[in-house]
Amino acid sequence: MVTLKEIAQMCGVSISTVSNIINGKSNVGEDTRRKVLEVIKQTGYKPNYFAQGMRKQKTRIVGIIVEDLNLFSTTPIVGAIMAYFEDHDYRTILIDMRLYDKWQDTWYNDEQKIQSVLQPSIKELLSIKVDGIVYIAGHCRIINCFPNDFKIPAIVVYGLSKNPRFTSVIIDDKKGGYDITKYLISAGHRRIGVIAGTADNLHTMNRSLGYQQALFEEKILFNPDLIRYGDWMRESGYSEAEYLVNSGVTAIFCMNDIMAAGAYDYLYEKGIKIAEDISVAGYDNNVISEYLRPALTTNEIQLNEIGQESAKVMLKMLENKYIPSKNPDIIEIPCRLVTRESVKKYKLEPASGNTVVS
Amino acid sequence: MVTLKEIAQMCGVSISTVSNIINGKSNVGEDTRRKVLEVIKQTGYKPNYFAQGMRKQKTRIVGIIVEDLNLFSTTPIVGAIMAYFEDHDYRTILIDMRLYDKWQDTWYNDEQKIQSVLQPSIKELLSIKVDGIVYIAGHCRIINCFPNDFKIPAIVVYGLSKNPRFTSVIIDDKKGGYDITKYLISAGHRRIGVIAGTADNLHTMNRSLGYQQALFEEKILFNPDLIRYGDWMRESGYSEAEYLVNSGVTAIFCMNDIMAAGAYDYLYEKGIKIAEDISVAGYDNNVISEYLRPALTTNEIQLNEIGQESAKVMLKMLENKYIPSKNPDIIEIPCRLVTRESVKKYKLEPASGNTVVS
DNA sequence: TTGTAGGCGTTATCAA
DNA sequence: TTGATAACGCCTACAA
Fold it and tell me: B-contacting residues of A 168-207, CB under 8 Å?
């Protein structure tokens, strides 16, 4: 790889002249500039990042830490962030903590486990001298990522920073739960069961809130029995669907598509026709939702938008142009309702008594 | 971030002594060593990679270039590679060329387009001074990645290097096609249709070869009409399934799971019972295969193994310990048959005349 | 308009 | 056993 020095020698000028030309300084003669530029092009010179990074204390590298790259939500976010930074002449370096890989489901309430991987990862990035760090969570939790005296810009994506000093970018789960419930209600359903995620999960709580809000607005009594807590897995969708069907619901809102698939399993087994006999909605717009039969109506998590927005915020921070609009600064990205075949109009039998769910 | 100099000052010793201790040199007094080590621990000192990389000409960073991170096959490979290097004290830097994002399907026969993104990416990594480069293709093609005089170790994964100097790691498609066909035959099928990928694709060609080999071994006449070329998309699975059903096949081997889903669409629409009336097999073990009904028998591409093997080879190269076993050096990773519900025993009616497919 | 010198943090060489 | 010094490639203040 060619260096400044070599270019200078080839052109018969000094190193600083070449440097000045590259950095667009105006104090260089036209002839010299042309000649040097020519040689640079020929040799395909590129500055050495290490030398550059050492000299200026900026590297134009942004570090991305992900909890687990194999989660369906993580890659699109990462992709969008990388794309954005690439377009703005920043490089990114990605660290995959592989938390699920290492500990399956046992880590996210175990601060110690997380920190034991997170701290070295952060130090790693710091020693690479990244200009900023983006932390991407695997699901929405309150996360203690960065110490209060953290020196470089940092944000938390798809999770909430415990420390209000750091901006968080999350999805608007409350509105998500609200929208999908409203949609179900607009299709005539009034007895709507929910297969929720784990009870202590923020997604679960906020989507439930949205669900309740929608019921309230439509003057439907909220029956807590109709909220069943699963564990996001297919099997729990199956078993909770059984319960809800026996409770006489006409529609089921599953808080992810995987559990919706589990509900499908149950309904199929029992010969209950989805869309005809009962409506089902999911959440995430996971690839599988297109391949379930009937295709699943769901709420798309706009992962690209999340990534892009995060990158945008980070870039502003790097340029010292970011002003948080509130404190704590939480940016909520809306979900997008994707209507497919699994929800059908429910015909109310008049005086059937199910106008109000009891 | 603490520097060597500061540590030296705090301990009242010289910079070189500290450096020697960190690098495990033996020419240091026991007392000094203990004291310095103590301070290093307290301050959480980590060497500055830029300074280090500048000094030694090695960075212990491996560059990974992917054609598109959003492809289902890419992330697991990347994950496995990162994991392996992390365990061996190497860092990785990932560049996502986003080829599909930029040009959809129009790039992979367009050398110019590819090179216009690839060359800057390589230069980028070179200027970061990575010790080696792993190129991950989105699908198997002959790819012209690296020039003949490339200075650092480089390999091509999930694709074939045009230049035989570079090692390639690919899947064993021939055996894959063979295995799945054998399996279908062992279930009693003799008239087996194929929904292949695009005709000029290496996956298509090799899987077809495996299919033919299996037929040959079982003394089944190969009927070229039963190979239909799709374009890997769901719709083409639908239409080619129609053709094959009309040709009277008892089983369909789809060269990816997406097209198998398309075949499902057709069969479902026509009321043809999968597994009962006709058997279907896919390829990839895409997530969706578990959610199709009946669950799809398919051939798993062992992406983790591919990643791991690639990383292993690259590491050996970095340590100058790699000796290619053949030239060109192509490492083939076998696929793994995943049997589910979509293939059922076909009962031969005696003297039905379909022992030999004509 | 161009060139010189110093320093970013580390390691290697050599001298003390 | 320890320390001074040069060098890696680049940028910048300042001198010429």
Answer: none
